[in-house]
Amino acid sequence: MDQATIDRLAVAPVAPGKLLIEGHWLEGAGETPVLSPIDGRQLTTIAAADAADVARACASARAAFEDGRWSRMAPAARKAVMHRLADLIERNAAELAVLGVRDNGTEISMALKAEPGSTAATFRYYAEAIDKIYGEIAPTPSIVLALIHREPVGVVGAIVPWNFPLMIGAWKIAPALATGNSVVLKPAETASLSLLRLAALALEAGVPPGVFNVVTGPGRVTGEALALSPDVDVLVFTGSGATGRRLLQYSAQSNLKRCYLELGGKSPNVVFADAPDLSTAAKAAATAIFRNAGQVCVAGSRLLVEASVHDRFVDELATATRKMAVGNPLKLETQVGAVNSLTQLEGNLGFVTDATREGGEIVTGGERVLQETGGYYMDPTIVTGVRPEHRLYREEVFGPVLAVTPFTDEAEALRLANSSDFGLAAGVWTANLSRAHRMIRGIRSGVVHVNTYGGADVTVPLAGTKQSGNGADKSLHALEKYTDLKTAWIQL
Fold first, then answer.
1. How far is CA 135 from CA 132, 297, 476, 482, in A?
2. What torsion do the CA atoms of 129, 131, 135, 136 make, to the nearest 10 degrees?
3. What pLDDT sits at residue 242?
4. Does 58 participate in catalysis according to the annotation?
5. Average confidence (pLDDT) per 10 residues, the chain, 492 residues
6. What is the pLDDT of residue 191?
7. 297 catalytic residue (yes or no)
8. pLDDT value at residue 83
9. Is the CATH number of domain 268-457 3.40.50.1000?
10. pTM score, whole prediction
């Protein structure tokens, strides 16, 4: 996509967002303004659903599931619909990408691949899986035939975050639909627009009314009502640990719905002195934390560097960081876009203030920039001298702030890597194959990158450990969340 196309789409009017219930676009109980992080101006409004609106959406999803309009549709027919949806996503990729950037601030160069590109690929992946997942025959005595069926769970409630709404939304929506479930989606109130457009494309592709519903609004109202609904059988969520805890409580208070949570991360990126190329590792370390303004759940936000190369590595890292272009995320040359909201930006700056108070040293960044634009931008920030007891070491910032800590040997590196309540992702840089495998086995996280950081596609699972959650997004393993096992025990 060229800059002229982006610029044209960037000024297109955005219609107010409505609720999608039973295939109809409806007003909600209220509405919420949508402020673009690019310039702080109001872009449009979205409907704010109350508990009654959510109940209607869940009842619609339940009715659609029970009457079989999708759940009992032939797998090949569901597959065809999902491929049509992927086609429409690709056909409207430019519009979807720009709309999402105007809403959440991700740099367009990243959004094109990570949002519509990844979303279309995810729907295709699970479309192809539909008619390739078989039941089982158990090894029973000859007088018994035991069949193990996989059946859809029913209604899936999906609550997705604002950093990559299309991509993460697809990780949940696509496998849920592929296995025959109905879905009620609750996007983040600061990133709903691209998912509302996706829902419209789903209707166009032939997803029956009521099978895919969307309710927008604040988490404390809309999300809570969805989590408490007795019509929801499984709840899937990506977001903060605090919200995840509340969702578990709501499950206990309602119908004991299963909850699968992909929560925060404070991922260690471990650089040994024998890394194949320290300059490459330094550039990758900068990208691992600063792309999308640090608003990535798997971001390498704790950099652990072997003491013998610490100073040299930090110098190269700082040089690479200062070269990263911060600015309007709708410009192709921008490498660090906007922080999603003013509240998020203020929280990021608070982490920097606390880090210096606790003894950390700012190597570069640490301030709000481009304030004259009215948008929410922060200079990529590197803080050295961060110790395990510091807040910046322990808590997820979800912003462009990197904590740097030295280590002396492999044992200390492993201890530091695991000295976190989180366990979502990690990185290891070493030319020693044996050390790489020892670190892979020793680090408690859902994914360990070796001599790279990021880039894992839909074929492999993303599964958190410790307080980073449970269950898996992506890969065929994700289908397990959206199906129930049923045994048929037949006396012959």
1. 10, 34, 14, 15
2. -80
3. 95
4. no
5. 95 97 98 97 98 98 98 97 98 98 97 96 98 95 97 98 97 98 98 98 98 97 98 98 97 98 97 97 98 97 98 98 98 98 97 97 98 98 98 98 98 98 98 98 98 94 96 97 98 98
6. 97
7. yes
8. 98
9. no
10. 0.96
* Interacting residues of 420 by C-beta distance below 8 A, sequence separation 6+: 266, 268, 302, 394, 466
Q: Which residue among the candidates 58, 115, 259, 297 is catalytic per the annotation?
A: 297
Candidate list 189, 262, 306, 316, residue with the active-site label: 262
Where, residue-wise, is CATH 3.40.605.10 in the chain?
3-263+469-491
Task: Please state, as a whole number, how many other Cβ atoms lie within 10 Å of the Cβ of residue 177.
Answer: 27
d(CA 399, CA 390): 17
CATH topology for 3-263+469-491 is Aldehyde Dehydrogenase; Chain A, domain 1 (3.40.605)
What is the arrangement of strands in the sheet containing 447-450, beginning at the earlier edge strand? Answer: 361-364, 381-384, 401-407, 302-306, 268-271, 425-429, 447-450
Task: Name the nearest CA neighbour of 40 among 331, 296, 290, 344.
Answer: 344
**pLDDT at residue number 253:** 98
Q: Where in the chain is the domain with CATH 3.40.309.10?
A: 268-457
pLDDT given for residue 1 in this prediction: 85
Strands 268-271 and 381-384, by their bridges, are unpaired
Q: How far apart are CA 486 and CA 151, in angstroms?
A: 7
Secondary structure of the chain as H, E, C letters: CCHHHHHHHHCCCCCCECEEECCEEECCCEEEEEECCCCCCEEEEEEECCHHHHHHHHHHHHHHHHHCCCCCCCHHHHHHHHHHHHHHHHHCHHHHHHHHHHHHCCCHHHHHHHHHHHHHHHHHHHHHHHHHCCCEECCCCCCEEEEEEEEECCEEEEECCCCCHHHHHHHHHHHHHHCCCEEEEECCCCCCHHHHHHHHHHHHHCCCCCCEEECCCCHHHHHHHHHHCCCCCEEEEECCHHHHHHHHHHHHHCCCCEEEEECCCCCEEEECCCCCCHHHHHHHHHHHHHHHHHCCCCCCCEEEEEHHHHHHHHHHHHHHHHCCCECCCCCCCCCECCCCCHHHHHHHHHHHHHHHHCCCEEEECCCEECHHHCCCEECCEEEECCCCCCHHHHCCCCCCEEEEEEECCHHHHHHHHHCCCEECEEEEECCCHHHHHHHHHHCCCCEEEECCCCCCCCCCCEECEECCECCEECCHHHHHHHEEEEEEEEEC
- Provide the pLDDT for residue 200: 98
**Nearest alpha carbon to residue 154 among 69, 229, 62, 67:** 62
Q: Which residues pair with 473 in a beta bridge?
A: 462
Q: What are phi and psi for residue 96, nearest 5 degrees? A: -60, -45
Q: What angle do CA 155, 156, 158 make, to 5 degrees?
A: 150
